[in-house]
Automatic annotation (TrEMBL):
Keywords: Disulfide bond, FAD, Flavoprotein, NAD, NADP, Nucleotide-binding, Oxidoreductase, Redox-active center. It comes from the Bacteria. Its cofactor is FAD. This is FAD-dependent oxidoreductase. It comes from Pseudotabrizicola algicola. InterPro entries: FAD/NAD-bd_sf (IPR036188), FAD/NAD-binding_dom (IPR023753), FAD/NAD-linked_Rdtase_dimer_sf (IPR016156), Pyr_nuc-diS_OxRdtase (IPR001100), Pyr_nucl-diS_OxRdtase_dimer (IPR004099), Pyr_OxRdtase_I_AS (IPR012999). NAD(+) binds at residues 177-184, 200, 263.
Length: 472
């Protein structure tokens, strides 16, 4: 067996692993990168990239139906579902070279395309080779979880790993799971001409502010997506083209295809973590704020670290780990400034505390600022006036922001920066936003924090009257 010694061994070539590999090798570290699946991980091949490409195609189809308000005769689009999937594939192929084995080998990374297995606290085997490293990073990501529902083993179940390969349009897509993935796929497929039913065992979009989530759910229902909440699945039956979902209350739902979007499972199978003395549970590797495991040589990032499951979190974790294992500097990860977005129409974005969380944490010291897109001039010109921005302020600083509306995912970036930098709300109020833009809604919300102090202050009014009398 060939022996390799290196400074850093990274297991997993998704967002987090690739970021660490590129950064470490370019700063002079010896790096081995091990990947048993596809380079680029879930995000490139079966997650963020293909889903957003599909959503873009669905948005183009919906625009043809929504022209009446602009004086344009609505038409029902003719959707070539196979051609839509060709568009999705082209987007993946365009981005893939950035994550390719060839690019990383060109940077100086030794890439091994095989599954890794720890054989000791400082050694792994992969592809018939033994790699001994000073530091290891587990960046294996997660996979869709198929719950142990009776019948799930025999019924053809789609997941995000397989649905983008489907070239024939489903007549009726059943989706188990009313979270971001389920609802993004529901709206996209509905707009592309499918009948869609979403089955959620609790509340759809349950992690988000319920007031804002209701705006998204209302819009999806208006477009024809059936969303069943508090509907627990009892059993599955059927074959491709004829699938039956039986709910625990006895109701039966029939469809042609079934998409499982009921959560994800961290991919640690086969790593033999016990041999390395790495503690873990069903949520992932057990790590501290520094992302180091119970084995001081081993770190975990992204989904493997057992926290928020977002591509940008993996990228953020990469920076935290690089500072430690490459530069020898202390660094810790936090989640208070991490945003997330559901890319429905309207989009739903969150950073920091929701209103309920902020009220629990700050009580009477909390101020909640509200601005509706209805009062934003750019939203009016675009005919996109559904939505709301809420800013939770404590001690003069934003501690959480919730947005539902057009381009919420872009708008949340400013607030993520503000929370990360501990900026005061006055910094946002003092910003000059170009007119007319959706971004003005953030400035107006921040300005509203000071309105009572300026316009409802009797002492200030008396002072202003005095100034007006004495000023030459």
């Amino acid at each position: 067996m060939r022996q390799i010694e290196t400074d850093i061994c990274i297991i997993g070539a998704g967002s987090g692993g690739l970021s660490i590999a590129a950064g470490a090798v370019q700063m002079g570290a010896r790096v081995v990168l091990i990947e048993g699946g596809e380079m680029g991980g879930d995000c490139l091949n079966a997650g963020c990239v293909p889903s957003k490409a599909l959503i873009a195609a669905a948005k183009a189809a919906q625009a043809m139906r929504d022209g009446a308000q602009f004086g344009i005769t609505p038409v029902e689009p003719q959707v070539d579902f196979a051609a839509v999937k060709d568009h999705v594939a082209r987007v993946i192929e365009t981005i893939a070279p950035v994550d390719s084995q060839e690019r990383f080998e060109g940077l100086g990374v030794q890439v091994i395309r095989a599954w890794a297995r720890f054989t000791g606290p400082d050694t792994v085997e992969a592809g018939g080779q033994s790699i001994k490293a000073r530091r290891f990073v587990i960046a294996t990501g997660s996979r869709p979880m198929v719950p142990p529902i009776p019948g799930a083993a025999t019924v053809p179940v789609l997941t995000n790993e397989t649905i983008f390969d489907l070239r024939d349009r489903p007549d009726h897509l059943l989706i188990i799971g009313g979270g971001p993935i389920g609802l993004e796929m529901a709206q996209a497929h509905r707009r592309l001409g499918c009948q869609v039913t979403v089955i959620e065992g609790a509340s759809a979009l349950g992690r988000d502010d319920p007031e804002l989530a209701a705006v998204v759910l209302s819009n999806l229902r208006a477009e024809g997506v059936e969303i069943l909440e508090n509907a627990k699945v009892g059993a599955l039956a059927g074959q491709e083209g004829d699938i039956t979902v039986t709910l625990e209350d006895g109701r039966k739902l029939n469809g042609s295809h079934l998409l499982m979007a009921a959560g994800r499972k961290v991919h640690l199978d086969g790593l033999n973590l016990e041999a390395a003395g790495v503690r873990h549970d069903r949520k992932g590797v057990t790590v501290g704020p520094d992302l180091r495991s119970s084995n001081r040589r081993v770190y975990a990032v992204g989904d493997a670290a057992g926290g928020l499951q977002f591509t940008h979190v993996a990228g953020y974790h990469a920076g935290v780990v690089i500072r430690q294992i490459v530069l020898g500097l202390p660094a810790k990860a936090t989640t208070r400034h991490i945003p997330w977005v559901t890319y429905t129409d309207p989009e739903l974005a969150q950073v920091g505390l929701t209103e309920a969380e902020a009220r629990k944490a700050h009580g009477d010291a909390l101020t909640v600022l509200r601005q509706e897109f209805l009062h934003n001039d750019r939203a009016q010109t675009e005919g996109k006036t559904k939505g709301l921005l809420k800013v939770m302020v404590a001690g003069g600083r934003p501690v959480g922001v919730s947005i539902v509306g057009p381009q919420a995912g872009e708008l949340i970036g400013l607030w993520a920066f503000a929370i990360a930098s501990r900026a005061k709300i006055s910094a946002i109020a003092g910003m000059v936003a170009p007119y007319p833009t959706l971004g003005e809604i953030s400035k107006r919300a921040a300005g509203a924090y000071f309105s009572p102090k300026l316009f409802d202050n009797p002492m200030l009014k008396r002072f202003v009257r005095l100034v007006q009398r004495v000023m030459p």
